[in-house]
Amino acid sequence: MLRQSMCGHSLATALLLCGTPLAAHAQLVWEPEPTLAPMRNPFLSEPALSGSDPATGPEPVSPGLVWVADLEPAPLTVADQASGNPEPVAAQPALSAEDLAAVLLEPYSPPNLGGGLPSAYVANWGDFYFQASAATSGSGRDVIDSAFSAGIGFGDERELVAVELRWNMASFKNLNSNGSFDVAMGRTLIDQPRLQVSVTGGIFDVYAYRQAPSSETIPSPTGFGVITMALPLREPNYRFNQVLQISVGVGGRDFVSLDENFEGNDVSVFGAIGVELAPNIGLSAGVSGRGVNVNLSYTPFRGLPIAINLLAADVFDQSPFGTVGVFTVSWGDNFRRGLF
After folding, report:
1. Range of 189's domain?
2. Has residue 247 been placed in a domain?
3. β-bridge pairing 178-192 and 195-210
């Protein structure tokens, strides 16, 4: 006859408990229980105390379920492994004095590296800019005039596409007598720590207007497309990564070579290359059917998106317009190159 154990639970319940995780350090096994010696009563004889016949001895006790310690160690938990064998933590190298100073200082806005030609970087959502330019007269013109433009961006070229809308006022002397709107749409194809590639297509003079006293004819829209690659020339650091930027594109009227009658082809290839000489100085050159341009860009203030550009257009006097110098001051036009 089997005895009940485990505080009155049946044998089946006890066997189920043996297979649960609560029995990780001990287990239920069959083992004969030791027979307790009877208490002696001085007023009773030995047979009466034992309750059995003195010739046969006490009745043997049937074995039952008892707790015994598990000889195998309990498996280590995740917490045990972490506390007994911690992972080594790599020590972060301390910043040098130059790196620490660079981190604490406000950064310069990036200089323009476009060589006086369009790049594939356009304004994104939240980007806006204002530009004011003054140019020398060039060949066949005795009038020095200036121009103004402003632009704003929509969308995100890294997520999907960005669209830049720009308004141009071509003359300060005859204020707003001629103007136009341009539109461009850009997309980032590769955005890696050591390489950025973007592509953009756009239309100049998508809408143009002329008012008196301007006698110029209204220009027809002209399209362009360009792909731009940017990469840092130095190892990653906090001070100066020295960005190199290269653009290659194709465009219409504003890029083609012209004869003395201002006639030319319909399409021309153009390209530009630029490099940072310092964190706030960039030098670039561009070439198209209109000749070779050289542009020096300078951002003088930390924390302010102000840029100054000195452009020499058609330095070899290859077009009927001749060599022209352009001085430009811009606010917010700080997205024209790859950022690293």
Report:
1. 110-331
2. yes
3. antiparallel
Closest CA to 245 of 188, 284, 281: 284
Is 237 contained in some domain? yes
Q: Which amino acid is at 310?
A: L
Rounded distance between C-alpha atoms, residue 113 and residue 184, angstroms: 18
Dihedral class, residue 138 (left if φ above 0, else alpha if ψ from -120 to 50, else beta)? left
**Do the beta carbons of residue 289 and residue 255 sit within 8 Å?**
yes
In a domain, 104, yes or no: no
Convert 274-304 to b/e letters by CB count within 10 Å (16 or more is b). Answer: bbbeebbebbbbbbbbbbbbebbbbbeeeee
For residues 41 and 108, what is the distance between their CA atoms, to the nearest angstrom? 103
Kindly calculate the radius of gyration of the chain based on its CA atoms and give it in whole angstroms. Answer: 43
Of 50, 62, 76, the closest CA to residue 1 belongs to: 62
Q: Are residues 204 and 280 in the same domain?
A: yes
> Predicted confidence band at 88 (pLDDT cuts at 50, 70, 90)?
low
If asked whether residues 216 and 313 sit together in one domain, one would say yes
Whether pLDDT at 118 is above 50: yes
Which helix (H) or strand (E) segment holds residue 163: the answer is strand 162-169
**Residues forming beta bridges with residue 302, ordered by sequence position:** 108
Do 172 and 290 fall within a single domain?
Answer: yes
d(CA 105, CA 38): 91
Determine, yes or no, domain membership for 94.
Answer: no
Average pLDDT over every residue of 300-329 = 93
DSSP 168: E
Question: What was the pLDDT predicted at 197?
Answer: 97
Number of domains the chain is built from: 2
Contact 155, 162 (CB under 8 A): yes
Give which of 121, 164, 97 is closest to 336, Cα–Cα.
Answer: 121
